[in-house]
Amino acid sequence: MTTATQPAASRPGAPAAPAIRVQGVEKSFKDLQVLKAVDFDVAKGSIFALLGSNGAGKTTLVNILSTLMKSDAGTATVEGFDVADSPGDVRRSISLTGQFAAVDEVLTGRENLVLVARLRHQKDPGRIADDLLARFSLTDAGDRRAATYSGGMRRRLDIAMSLIGDPPVVFLDEPTTGLDPQARIEVWQTVKALADGGTTVLLTTQYLDEAEQLADRIAILHEGVIIRNGTLAELKRLLPAAKVEYVEKQPSLEEVFLALVGEPAQAGEPAASVPTAPAAPSTKESR
Amino acid sequence: MTTHVLSDTRVLTARSLTHIVRSPDTIITTAVTPIALMLLFVYVFGGAIQTGGTESYIDYMLPGILLITIASGVAYTAYRLFLDLQGGIFQRFQSMPIARSSVLWGHVLTSLVANLVSVAIVVGVAFIMGFRTGASVGAWLAVIGILVLFTLALTWIAVIAGLSAKTVDGASAFSYPLIFLPFISSAFVPTDSMPGPVAWFAENQPVTSIVDTTRALFAGQPVGTDIWVALAWLVGIMAVAFVLAMRIYRRKAA
């Protein structure tokens, strides 16, 4: 229990209720205990990264929070709704972008967006689709079947589908696994823009730099337990103070690659063709 | 949420119908095997088969061929459902505020439409090959009704297969025994020509009553009690398969 987060309410200026609250959640598959008493809170409008290696239980946790799975013990609430008692309200408040891009390959990008807009009972699905295609630089590919998309385009479409209806909480399960460096940076910019627009983002990742780049708070999930939970600065303080050394800075291969192909190396720099702030598409519900 | 069952089902049915329109080979493949069987039976075996009636052989065997068409067509329903489960889009739908049963109903209604199109193609070819019927409008409607029930009953079996399959091949394997069932029935030869135990099985399995009813309707003859036996089988199979499918679905979607 010593690893549990302080509730967001105790932080000055933070709103009283966290967007996500997980308390004592346990889950086993047959004899294998995947989650052992997991606790954490996610403040509204923040980016929270669950960091862990493969098999740490990240996806299981996301599946419980998105009502796809039931926990064996403990409680979890999303936007104040209990995931076990009012799954319908939770589903209205969230969207899930799973580990594998869940797009319909037979449909075009635009048709995928229209499909989700219709299922979320939005007015004017066609306009929502066109807005999102523009926001995610997919307008030119909008009338092509999703099967022809590259990994990055597919993931962008996947995230765009998740944003329809402006859910206040977005789960991204390993959003950049399998993407090339440029596509990764595009996804990062999208995630940052989401949080800037007030959306709460919970993402899972096995990449340390991804958590470092994006997250307001990072929780390390290891063998079913949150072993550390804090801001990047707090986590860094866990190790002895940095020793000052003078080294010649060698560019990383990623920097070299990005310089050669002419992409910005910093995720924070908005490129002209990339999604900017989430100018919310018209929706029935307001935040 | 339940208020959206109809509109969600409509949206999801439109989605999977788009899949069929974009790969019409699934309908054509479904129709090709029954058509080949029809050619084989009419032009190769048919001359040697004594049905004991006055009708031409194609009139005799068409009802069985239509059932084979549907039995092979529902394999695609299991296949499409399985692909949805594999691809992650099923999870996306499950995490959205939609009526959950609409995900299944979309596939079921698509199956109905696709199979009726395949059946229409086969009937068209049968007409070219000399199939003739004196059926009234009412008899035609009764035939369509029986085929719709048969499709729904087999589709719910396909849903069970699609939801519980581990591999693509496994998803469609269930249809082979269903395709084979008409051969051990009155569909191609009269059951009294079969040896005792086989004849007993043939006379008491669902296909025979369905085939006999459909054949009588096409011929403009009274259906007798066959139609009630057929309806009891169809409704019974459909109800059991529906309950099982929904139970598996709820466990999957928990």
TrEMBL record, chain A:
Residues 270-287 have a biased composition (Low complexity). Its main location: membrane. Residues 266-287 are annotated as: Disordered. Pfam families: ABC_tran. One of its GO terms (molecular function) is ATP hydrolysis activity. Keywords: Antibiotic resistance, ATP-binding, Nucleotide-binding, Transport. SUPFAM superfamilies: P-loop containing nucleoside triphosphate hydrolases. It comes from the Bacteria. It is a peripheral membrane protein. InterPro entries: AAA+_ATPase (IPR003593), ABC_transporter-like_ATP-bd (IPR003439), ABC_transporter-like_CS (IPR017871), ABC_transporter_ATP-binding (IPR050763), P-loop_NTPase (IPR027417). It is found in: Cell membrane. Residues 20-248 form the ABC transporter domain. One of its GO terms (biological process) is response to antibiotic. GO terms for cellular component: plasma membrane. Belongs to the ABC transporter superfamily. PANTHER family: ABC TRANSPORTER ATP-BINDING PROTEIN, ABC TRANSPORTER ATP-BINDING PROTEIN NATA. This is ATP-binding cassette domain-containing protein.
TrEMBL record, chain B:
It is a multi-pass membrane protein. Its main location: membrane. GO terms for cellular component: ATP-binding cassette (ABC) transporter complex. InterPro entries: ABC2_TM, ABC2_TM_bact-type, ABC_2_transport, Nod_factor_ABC_transporter. Pfam families: ABC2_membrane. GO terms for molecular function: ABC-type transporter activity. It is found in: Cell membrane; Membrane. Residues 25-252 form the ABC transmembrane type-2 domain. Keywords: Antibiotic resistance, Cell membrane, Membrane, Transmembrane, Transmembrane helix, Transport. The chain crosses the membrane at residues 27-49, 61-82, 103-131, 137-161, 173-191, 227-249. GO terms for biological process: response to antibiotic. Belongs to the ABC-2 integral membrane protein family. This is Transport permease protein.
